[in-house]
Amino acid sequence: MSEEWTSIEPPEPLRTGGRLEQKFCLQIAVFSDMDPHNGVTLASSGQRHVIESEAEDRERTEYPLWVAEIAGDHTCLYRAGERAPGPDFPSDRMMVRLRLRSEPPLQVGKNWWRSYDPF
Hints:
ten-stranded antiparallel beta sheet; mainly beta
């Protein structure tokens, strides 16, 4: 991902629903630190990267996403910007696009959507 918006469109829309928590995860690198508004710090170089992201549903409603988790070589983006319990998106929506950008640019290995019932 670069300073320009990069769009990722899944082969099929991603369902939201009920009490489910949802997050988008990105395989990037090993991180040493994160802050939802100031980015992530790479363990290898100590360089900070500010990641901006948003999800878009079929109705073209946009949902800002924030870095809220780092683990090993991946980071996860949540709508709330924190790991709060409860649904992250309206239960009747279908996500069709994820947009990302980073300053400075980052290389993303893979990405995935995780939807789970925390209860």
